[in-house]
Design goal:
- By secondary structure, this protein is mainly alpha-helical.
- Helix content is 74%, strand content 1%.
- The chain contains 14 helices and 2 strands.
- The longest helix is centred in the first third of the chain and has 35 residues.
- It is globular.
- The mean pLDDT is 82.
Length: 307
Amino acid sequence: MIFIVSLFIGPRAMSPFALSDMEKEIILSIRLPRVLIAILIGMALGASGALLQGLLKNPLADPYILGISSGASLSAALGIMSGIYLFGKFTIPLMAFIGAIFVSTVVGILGWRRGGLWPERLLLAGIGLSFLFNAALMFIMSVSTDEGLRRAVLWIFGDLSIADWSLIPYGLAFIIAGLIISILRAKALNALILGDEIAYSLGFSVYKERFVLFISIALMTSASVSLGGIIGFIGLLIPHIVRLLVGADSRILIPASALCGGGFLCIADLIGKSIMAPMEIPSGIVTAIIGSPYFLYLLRRRDVLGI
Protein backbone atom coordinates (compact mmCIF):
# COMPACT_ATOMS: atom_id res chain seq x y z
CA MET A 1 0.00 0.00 0.00
CA ILE A 2 2.79 2.42 0.95
CA PHE A 3 4.55 1.55 -2.31
CA ILE A 4 1.48 2.44 -4.41
CA VAL A 5 0.81 5.67 -2.50
CA SER A 6 4.45 6.76 -2.94
CA LEU A 7 4.18 6.27 -6.69
CA PHE A 8 1.01 8.25 -7.30
CA ILE A 9 1.05 10.86 -4.52
CA GLY A 10 3.68 13.59 -4.45
CA PRO A 11 4.24 17.16 -5.62
CA ARG A 12 1.77 16.24 -8.35
CA ALA A 13 -0.95 13.71 -7.51
CA MET A 14 -1.83 11.26 -10.25
CA SER A 15 -4.68 8.84 -10.80
CA PRO A 16 -3.49 5.28 -11.51
CA PHE A 17 -6.58 4.78 -13.71
CA ALA A 18 -6.05 7.74 -16.07
CA LEU A 19 -2.38 8.35 -16.73
CA SER A 20 -1.19 10.55 -19.57
CA ASP A 21 1.97 9.67 -21.49
CA MET A 22 3.89 12.32 -19.55
CA GLU A 23 2.66 10.96 -16.22
CA LYS A 24 3.67 7.43 -17.19
CA GLU A 25 7.15 8.72 -18.01
CA ILE A 26 7.35 10.54 -14.66
CA ILE A 27 6.38 7.39 -12.77
CA LEU A 28 8.69 5.04 -14.69
CA SER A 29 11.72 7.33 -14.93
CA ILE A 30 11.58 9.33 -11.70
CA ARG A 31 9.21 8.03 -9.05
CA LEU A 32 9.60 4.26 -9.41
CA PRO A 33 13.41 4.16 -9.07
CA ARG A 34 13.20 6.64 -6.20
CA VAL A 35 10.67 4.52 -4.31
CA LEU A 36 12.68 1.34 -4.93
CA ILE A 37 15.87 2.99 -3.65
CA ALA A 38 14.02 4.31 -0.58
CA ILE A 39 12.81 0.76 0.14
CA LEU A 40 16.31 -0.66 -0.29
CA ILE A 41 17.91 1.94 1.98
CA GLY A 42 15.22 1.57 4.64
CA MET A 43 15.53 -2.22 4.58
CA ALA A 44 19.30 -2.04 4.89
CA LEU A 45 19.24 0.42 7.79
CA GLY A 46 16.44 -1.35 9.66
CA ALA A 47 18.12 -4.74 9.45
CA SER A 48 21.58 -3.31 10.23
CA GLY A 49 20.24 -1.57 13.32
CA ALA A 50 18.73 -4.80 14.62
CA LEU A 51 22.00 -6.63 13.97
CA LEU A 52 24.19 -4.03 15.64
CA GLN A 53 22.03 -3.65 18.72
CA GLY A 54 22.35 -7.40 19.24
CA LEU A 55 26.00 -7.70 18.25
CA LEU A 56 27.15 -4.83 20.47
CA LYS A 57 24.51 -5.53 23.15
CA ASN A 58 23.78 -1.81 23.05
CA PRO A 59 20.19 -0.60 22.60
CA LEU A 60 21.46 2.79 21.39
CA ALA A 61 23.57 1.35 18.56
CA ASP A 62 22.73 2.23 14.97
CA PRO A 63 24.39 1.45 11.61
CA TYR A 64 26.38 4.69 11.64
CA ILE A 65 28.03 4.11 15.00
CA LEU A 66 30.94 2.24 13.37
CA GLY A 67 32.05 5.32 11.44
CA ILE A 68 30.95 3.93 8.07
CA SER A 69 28.77 6.96 7.33
CA SER A 70 31.60 9.39 8.11
CA GLY A 71 33.95 7.72 5.67
CA ALA A 72 31.28 7.56 2.98
CA SER A 73 30.33 11.21 3.53
CA LEU A 74 33.92 12.40 3.30
CA SER A 75 34.54 10.43 0.12
CA ALA A 76 31.26 11.58 -1.47
CA ALA A 77 31.86 15.21 -0.48
CA LEU A 78 35.29 15.10 -2.11
CA GLY A 79 33.64 13.88 -5.29
CA ILE A 80 30.88 16.49 -5.18
CA MET A 81 33.19 19.40 -4.52
CA SER A 82 35.78 18.34 -7.08
CA GLY A 83 33.19 18.55 -9.83
CA ILE A 84 34.76 15.55 -11.59
CA TYR A 85 32.11 13.04 -12.71
CA LEU A 86 33.94 10.25 -14.52
CA PHE A 87 30.94 7.89 -14.26
CA GLY A 88 28.10 10.41 -14.53
CA LYS A 89 25.44 10.11 -11.83
CA PHE A 90 27.09 6.93 -10.63
CA THR A 91 30.27 8.80 -9.60
CA ILE A 92 29.08 10.06 -6.20
CA PRO A 93 27.45 6.78 -5.06
CA LEU A 94 30.57 4.92 -6.20
CA MET A 95 32.88 7.21 -4.24
CA ALA A 96 30.66 6.96 -1.18
CA PHE A 97 30.68 3.18 -1.41
CA ILE A 98 34.47 3.08 -1.74
CA GLY A 99 34.80 5.34 1.30
CA ALA A 100 32.36 3.21 3.31
CA ILE A 101 34.13 -0.04 2.44
CA PHE A 102 37.51 1.52 3.31
CA VAL A 103 36.28 2.59 6.74
CA SER A 104 34.61 -0.78 7.33
CA THR A 105 37.93 -2.47 6.62
CA VAL A 106 39.85 -0.14 8.95
CA VAL A 107 37.27 -0.59 11.73
CA GLY A 108 37.45 -4.34 11.29
CA ILE A 109 41.25 -4.29 11.53
CA LEU A 110 41.21 -2.08 14.62
CA GLY A 111 38.47 -4.18 16.20
CA TRP A 112 40.39 -7.43 15.67
CA ARG A 113 42.11 -8.88 18.70
CA ARG A 114 43.31 -12.35 19.59
CA GLY A 115 41.88 -14.01 16.54
CA GLY A 116 38.45 -12.34 16.47
CA LEU A 117 36.34 -9.18 16.47
CA TRP A 118 35.64 -7.68 19.87
CA PRO A 119 32.46 -5.56 20.16
CA GLU A 120 34.08 -3.02 22.48
CA ARG A 121 37.01 -2.47 20.14
CA LEU A 122 34.68 -2.17 17.14
CA LEU A 123 32.63 0.47 18.94
CA LEU A 124 35.62 2.53 20.07
CA ALA A 125 37.31 2.29 16.67
CA GLY A 126 34.13 3.45 14.96
CA ILE A 127 33.67 6.41 17.29
CA GLY A 128 37.30 7.46 16.92
CA LEU A 129 37.22 7.30 13.13
CA SER A 130 33.90 9.16 13.06
CA PHE A 131 35.45 12.13 14.85
CA LEU A 132 38.47 12.06 12.52
CA PHE A 133 36.50 11.89 9.28
CA ASN A 134 33.88 14.39 10.45
CA ALA A 135 36.65 16.87 11.25
CA ALA A 136 38.16 16.34 7.79
CA LEU A 137 34.71 16.77 6.22
CA MET A 138 34.07 20.02 8.07
CA PHE A 139 37.43 21.37 6.97
CA ILE A 140 36.80 20.52 3.33
CA MET A 141 33.33 22.03 3.41
CA SER A 142 34.66 25.20 5.03
CA VAL A 143 37.01 25.87 2.09
CA SER A 144 34.64 24.77 -0.68
CA THR A 145 32.65 26.90 -3.12
CA ASP A 146 29.06 27.79 -2.25
CA GLU A 147 27.56 25.48 -4.89
CA GLY A 148 29.74 22.54 -3.91
CA LEU A 149 28.93 23.10 -0.25
CA ARG A 150 25.17 23.17 -0.86
CA ARG A 151 25.20 19.97 -2.89
CA ALA A 152 27.37 18.21 -0.31
CA VAL A 153 25.09 19.26 2.55
CA LEU A 154 21.98 18.05 0.73
CA TRP A 155 23.58 14.68 0.04
CA ILE A 156 24.82 14.28 3.62
CA PHE A 157 21.32 14.96 4.97
CA GLY A 158 19.85 12.13 2.91
CA ASP A 159 18.87 13.31 -0.55
CA LEU A 160 17.01 10.77 -2.69
CA SER A 161 16.52 13.16 -5.61
CA ILE A 162 19.52 11.61 -7.42
CA ALA A 163 17.71 8.26 -7.54
CA ASP A 164 18.22 6.60 -10.89
CA TRP A 165 17.69 3.16 -12.43
CA SER A 166 21.46 2.79 -12.86
CA LEU A 167 21.94 2.80 -9.08
CA ILE A 168 19.52 -0.01 -8.31
CA PRO A 169 21.39 -3.14 -9.56
CA TYR A 170 24.49 -2.70 -7.43
CA GLY A 171 22.51 -1.44 -4.44
CA LEU A 172 20.17 -4.41 -4.72
CA ALA A 173 23.10 -6.84 -4.96
CA PHE A 174 24.92 -5.65 -1.83
CA ILE A 175 21.85 -5.03 0.32
CA ILE A 176 20.14 -8.32 -0.54
CA ALA A 177 23.43 -10.17 0.05
CA GLY A 178 23.71 -8.55 3.47
CA LEU A 179 20.09 -9.34 4.30
CA ILE A 180 20.45 -12.99 3.31
CA ILE A 181 23.59 -13.37 5.45
CA SER A 182 21.96 -11.69 8.45
CA ILE A 183 18.79 -13.80 8.23
CA LEU A 184 20.76 -17.03 7.84
CA ARG A 185 22.88 -16.17 10.90
CA ALA A 186 19.99 -14.87 13.02
CA LYS A 187 20.05 -17.95 15.23
CA ALA A 188 23.74 -17.36 15.93
CA LEU A 189 22.97 -13.74 16.83
CA ASN A 190 20.40 -14.94 19.36
CA ALA A 191 23.12 -17.05 20.96
CA LEU A 192 25.64 -14.18 21.00
CA ILE A 193 23.12 -11.94 22.74
CA LEU A 194 22.89 -14.51 25.55
CA GLY A 195 26.66 -14.43 26.03
CA ASP A 196 29.82 -15.93 24.57
CA GLU A 197 29.85 -18.95 26.86
CA ILE A 198 26.29 -19.89 25.99
CA ALA A 199 27.03 -19.38 22.28
CA TYR A 200 30.03 -21.71 22.58
CA SER A 201 27.94 -24.31 24.39
CA LEU A 202 25.37 -24.21 21.58
CA GLY A 203 28.06 -24.98 19.02
CA PHE A 204 28.67 -21.53 17.54
CA SER A 205 32.12 -20.10 16.82
CA VAL A 206 31.80 -16.70 18.47
CA TYR A 207 34.57 -14.93 16.55
CA LYS A 208 33.49 -16.38 13.22
CA GLU A 209 29.85 -15.38 13.76
CA ARG A 210 30.80 -11.85 14.76
CA PHE A 211 32.96 -11.51 11.66
CA VAL A 212 30.21 -12.75 9.34
CA LEU A 213 27.63 -10.45 10.95
CA PHE A 214 30.03 -7.50 10.70
CA ILE A 215 30.46 -8.18 6.97
CA SER A 216 26.68 -8.20 6.60
CA ILE A 217 26.35 -4.86 8.41
CA ALA A 218 29.18 -3.32 6.38
CA LEU A 219 27.65 -4.40 3.07
CA MET A 220 24.18 -3.05 3.86
CA THR A 221 25.29 0.20 5.50
CA SER A 222 27.87 0.99 2.82
CA ALA A 223 25.38 0.44 0.02
CA SER A 224 22.62 2.42 1.75
CA VAL A 225 24.83 5.44 2.46
CA SER A 226 26.13 5.47 -1.11
CA LEU A 227 22.58 5.36 -2.51
CA GLY A 228 21.06 8.19 -0.48
CA GLY A 229 23.44 9.80 1.98
CA ILE A 230 23.04 9.72 5.75
CA ILE A 231 19.47 8.99 6.83
CA GLY A 232 19.28 8.79 10.58
CA PHE A 233 16.98 7.20 13.14
CA ILE A 234 15.81 4.30 10.96
CA GLY A 235 18.50 1.93 12.20
CA LEU A 236 18.13 3.20 15.75
CA LEU A 237 14.37 3.49 16.08
CA ILE A 238 12.81 0.84 13.83
CA PRO A 239 14.28 -2.22 15.64
CA HIS A 240 12.87 -0.96 18.96
CA ILE A 241 9.40 -0.47 17.50
CA VAL A 242 9.49 -3.88 15.80
CA ARG A 243 10.77 -5.51 18.99
CA LEU A 244 7.65 -4.23 20.76
CA LEU A 245 5.46 -5.87 18.12
CA VAL A 246 7.15 -9.21 17.40
CA GLY A 247 9.58 -9.79 20.26
CA ALA A 248 13.37 -10.06 20.39
CA ASP A 249 13.91 -13.26 18.37
CA SER A 250 16.41 -12.18 15.68
CA ARG A 251 14.96 -14.69 13.21
CA ILE A 252 11.81 -12.56 13.11
CA LEU A 253 13.20 -9.22 14.23
CA ILE A 254 15.70 -8.81 11.38
CA PRO A 255 13.34 -9.34 8.40
CA ALA A 256 10.55 -7.43 10.15
CA SER A 257 12.91 -4.50 10.83
CA ALA A 258 13.94 -4.53 7.17
CA LEU A 259 10.33 -4.38 5.96
CA CYS A 260 9.32 -1.67 8.43
CA GLY A 261 12.46 0.34 7.67
CA GLY A 262 11.67 0.31 3.96
CA GLY A 263 8.10 1.42 4.57
CA PHE A 264 9.14 4.15 7.01
CA LEU A 265 11.64 5.69 4.59
CA CYS A 266 9.05 5.65 1.78
CA ILE A 267 6.70 7.63 4.01
CA ALA A 268 9.47 10.05 5.03
CA ASP A 269 10.48 10.61 1.41
CA LEU A 270 6.86 11.19 0.39
CA ILE A 271 6.48 13.82 3.12
CA GLY A 272 9.79 15.47 2.21
CA LYS A 273 8.98 15.88 -1.49
CA SER A 274 5.32 16.88 -0.99
CA ILE A 275 4.99 19.13 2.04
CA MET A 276 6.85 22.14 0.55
CA ALA A 277 6.63 21.33 -3.17
CA PRO A 278 8.31 22.20 -5.46
CA MET A 279 11.07 22.41 -2.84
CA GLU A 280 12.20 19.15 -1.25
CA ILE A 281 13.19 18.41 2.32
CA PRO A 282 15.97 15.77 2.49
CA SER A 283 14.67 12.47 3.82
CA GLY A 284 17.24 12.43 6.61
CA ILE A 285 15.73 15.59 8.07
CA VAL A 286 12.21 14.16 7.91
CA THR A 287 13.22 10.90 9.62
CA ALA A 288 14.93 12.91 12.37
CA ILE A 289 11.87 15.12 12.91
CA ILE A 290 9.59 12.08 13.12
CA GLY A 291 12.00 9.81 14.94
CA SER A 292 13.39 12.08 17.65
CA PRO A 293 10.18 12.60 19.66
CA TYR A 294 9.21 8.95 19.43
CA PHE A 295 12.66 7.80 20.44
CA LEU A 296 12.58 10.10 23.48
CA TYR A 297 9.25 8.51 24.36
CA LEU A 298 10.82 5.07 24.09
CA LEU A 299 13.76 6.25 26.16
CA ARG A 300 11.36 6.98 29.00
CA ARG A 301 10.29 3.36 28.88
CA ARG A 302 13.38 1.75 30.38
CA ASP A 303 11.89 -1.70 29.97
CA VAL A 304 11.80 -1.22 26.19
CA LEU A 305 15.35 0.03 25.67
CA GLY A 306 16.84 -2.13 28.37
CA ILE A 307 18.67 0.77 30.04
